[in-house]
């Protein structure tokens, strides 16, 4: 068996060993963290910075989105897009130049924004307040042409009532005379003016010429010229000429070019007149349904804006 050894350096046994160990601990360098652990801490800090950056960006995006969603302009675009999609869904195979308006019962040209009607005794008694209130998706009736006279003797039986009540409802109104080419043109103009007391802000007077009435084209134009000249002399304005597209093409296209033109031409994508022809009103349907009117009625589009329409009023 080996012998036991004891070491004594002037103290208790084991004291030297403890002192040496304590000294070694005090002089030992701090341990370096393993590279992987240091990298993990660095990555953790980077992730925290990244999270803060992403969070700030998200809040900024959310704030901008909130401002957009609260903007009336945004809702205007949304409603416009929704309305267009809904209209397409209702009539996907329809003519792109037209849009169907259910309440009016007709297709209306998309290009024009000012609309009106023309009426006579055929429409019977009209509730003009209901006419003026009717609206569908921004389309409403802004103006009305009212039949006053025909030939030398006939006065439309509803003219006086219509002429009185339509302006009260806020409509811009004009009166028209149904022209008879076989009768004296000047006498017809005089009769028209006797019945209609044109005033400031009325639409220009209208002469409705649709047939030869048994006379030659030359005779028709001569009588029409007399009618127009007398009206211009007495009112100081040029009357509007109303006619159908075919009649215009056959007999009037090369004449009376200085007068405002109102053309009837139904169910077409556009008014098919020569490119140089300047027209103002287009009667595109004779089958419109309008609140306050018991029969179908002619529907018209104006070729211009509100300012242009004002130029066709008596001053």
Automatic annotation (TrEMBL):
GO terms for molecular function: lysozyme activity. GO terms for biological process: carbohydrate catabolic process; cell wall macromolecule catabolic process; peptidoglycan catabolic process. It comes from the Bacteria. Pfam families: Glyco_hydro_25. PROSITE patterns: GLYCOSYL_HYDROL_F25_2. The chain crosses the membrane at residues 54-75. Coiled coil: none annotated. InterPro entries: GH, Glyco_hydro_25, Glyco_hydro_fam25_subgr. The keyword Transmembrane helix applies. Residues 28-50 are annotated as: Disordered. Keywords: Glycosidase, Hydrolase, Membrane, Transmembrane, Transmembrane helix. CDD domains: GH25_YegX-like (cd06524). The keyword Membrane applies. SUPFAM superfamilies: (Trans)glycosidases (SSF51445). Belongs to the glycosyl hydrolase 25 family. This is Glycoside hydrolase. The lineage of its organism: Bacteria, Pseudomonadati, Bacteroidota, Sphingobacteriia, Sphingobacteriales.
């Amino acid at each position: 068996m080996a012998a036991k050894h004891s070491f004594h350096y002037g103290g208790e046994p084991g004291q030297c060993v403890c002192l040496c160990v304590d000294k070694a601990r005090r002089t030992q360098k701090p341990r370096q963290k393993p590279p992987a652990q240091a990298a993990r801490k660095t990555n953790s800090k980077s992730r925290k910075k990244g999270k803060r950056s992403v969070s700030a960006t998200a809040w900024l995006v959310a704030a901008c989105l909130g401002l957009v969603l609260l903007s009336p302009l945004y809702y205007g675009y949304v409603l416009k897009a929704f309305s267009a999609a809904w209209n397409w869904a209702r009539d996907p195979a329809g003519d792109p130049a037209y849009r169907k308006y259910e309440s009016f019962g007709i297709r209306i040209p998309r290009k024009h924004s000012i609309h009106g009607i023309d009426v006579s005794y055929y429409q019977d008694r009209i509730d003009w307040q209901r006419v003026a209130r009717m609206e569908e998706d921004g389309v409403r009736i802004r103006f009305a042409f009212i039949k006053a006279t025909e030939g030398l003797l006939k006065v439309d039986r509803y003219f006086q009532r219509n002429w009185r009540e339509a302006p009260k409802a806020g409509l811009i109104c004009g009166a028209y005379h149904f022209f008879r080419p076989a009768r004296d043109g000047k006498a017809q103009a005089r009769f028209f003016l006797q019945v209609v007391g044109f005033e400031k802000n009325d639409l220009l007077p209208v002469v409705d010429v649709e047939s030869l009435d048994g006379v030659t084209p030359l005779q028709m134009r001569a009588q029409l010229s007399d009618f127009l000249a007398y009206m211009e002399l007495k009112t100081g304005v040029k009357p509007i000429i109303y006619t159908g597209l075919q009649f215009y093409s056959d007999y009037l296209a090369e004449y009376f070019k200085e007068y405002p033109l109102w053309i009837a031409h139904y169910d077409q994508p556009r008014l098919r007149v020569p490119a140089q022809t300047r027209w103002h009103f287009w009667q595109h349907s004779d089958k419109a349904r309008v609140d306050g009117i018991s029969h179908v009625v002619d529907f018209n589009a104006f070729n211009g804006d509100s300012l242009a329409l004002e130029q066709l009023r008596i001053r």
